[in-house]
Design brief:
Blueprint lengths: L1 H28 L3 H33 L1 H27 L5 H7 L10 H12 L1 H10 L5 H51 L6 E6 L5 H15 L6 E6 L10 H9 L14 H6 L2 E4 L2 H10 L7 E3 H4 L15 H18 L4
Parallel strand pairs: 1-2, 1-3, 3-4
Length: 346
């Protein structure tokens, strides 16, 4: 009896690995607690029903075929074990990924909502092996009730562990990502403090290069002039724009209110030449930074959001386009405050 119990527990753990892996993946991506509990309940029920069916078939086969049924059951268990070993080896062998690749996959996203039919289908797919295993155990004449309860309970616990483990791992990776970005940022800021001549050109980047970045450019140039700094050039560009567009009318009006003129500004698209020449690239939002680091990975240690550079990594400068003059005035005030802090590190 004890040997049979050990066998059932071991088999239950092996069967639960598929459910654990699937749950871990969803946990890393983000899943609601309600969805996780529904999924766990479904997996538990499937891991009770499937072995139950297999056990009854196996016991019936045992009565009919005698010793050959036991041999057939052992072969079924051996086949399942071998199949899982091969799958595991293939997954491990596939390729090695870097921490940066993991971070790019695990960028914060909204919690995934899994529909009931998806839960039922996925639960069935990760539980189907339990049917064959149940048949194999049935030929060994183990206790039906105890076996089903053990397999179902262990599968449920492993699924729940996968969900919560994935969630905690994702949170840990997010902290490590922010820490890494913060270290890069402080490294660059300290470099700027220790070597006043290290920054020769700053590139300010937004979406269309008709609102935020041209306003930031002229504000930055004014701050540099007021500080009597003449060896730093400032450029602006856009990620999703075309060359030759004027600054938006609202941007021109708001800058005129501050005594600054951007009427002669024309937009330009971010390109390799601009990125190569820039010593420091400051983007308006985290989306812009991600896009820039993807296009120009060799410059990733010189690309920051304005918020990151002043120690507020969650801060984005939102696009005021089409939102009226007050939205532009708010953006200008925000840019002026942030760029004044940036000046302390140049």
């Amino acid at each position: 009896m004890f040997e049979q119990l050990i066998t059932v527990v071991f088999v239950a753990i092996v069967l639960g690995l598929d459910a654990f892996s699937l749950a871990l993946g969803y946990g890393l991506r983000g899943i609601s607690r309600a969805n996780a509990l529904k999924f766990t309940g479904t997996i538990t029920i499937y891991h009770i029903l499937m072995p139950l069916i297999g056990l009854n078939i196996g016991m019936a086969a045992g009565k009919l075929l005698g010793i050959w049924a036991a041999r057939l059951g052992a072969a079924a268990l051996a086949y399942i074990g071998l199949e899982m070993l091969i799958k595991g080896y293939q997954v491990i062998k596939t390729r090695t990924v870097t921490f940066a690749e993991v971070r790019s996959v695990l960028e914060p996203t909204a919690q995934k909502v899994i529909k009931l039919k998806e839960i039922l289908l996925l639960g069935f797919l990760v539980s189907i092996d339990a049917l064959t295993v149940g048949f194999g155990l049935g030929t060994l004449r183990v206790s039906i009730l105890l076996t089903c309860l053990i397999i179902g309970t262990i599968a449920g616990v492993m699924t729940l562990t996968g969900f919560f483990g994935g969630g905690y791992l994702a949170a840990l990776l997010a902290i490590m990502r922010k820490l890494q970005e913060g270290l890069y940022c402080w490294y660059w800021r300290l470099k700027c403090l220790s070597r006043g001549d290290s920054v020769k050109k700053i590139l300010l980047v937004c979406s269309g290069n008709t609102c935020r970045s041209p306003m930031a450019k002229i504000i930055m140039e004014q701050l540099l002039k007021n500080a009597n700094i003449h060896n730093i050039a400032v450029e602006s560009a856009g990620l999703y724009t075309t060359n030759g567009l004027p600054a938006s009318e609202a941007a021109q009006i708001v800058m005129q209110e501050m005594g600054m003129d951007i009427s002669t500004h024309t937009s330009q698209v971010v390109n390799e030449e601009l990125m190569t020449e820039a010593d420091l690239i400051l983007a308006m939002t985290r989306e812009h930074r991600r896009f820039l680091t993807g296009l120009f990975p060799q410059k990733k240690h010189q690309i920051f959001t304005l918020g990151e550079f002043i120690g507020q990594p969650e801060l984005d400068i939102e696009d005021p386009y089409g939102l009226g003059l007050e939205a532009y005035r708010k953006s200008v005030q925000q840019l002026k405050e942030i760029l004044t802090v940036v000046m302390n590190f140049l």
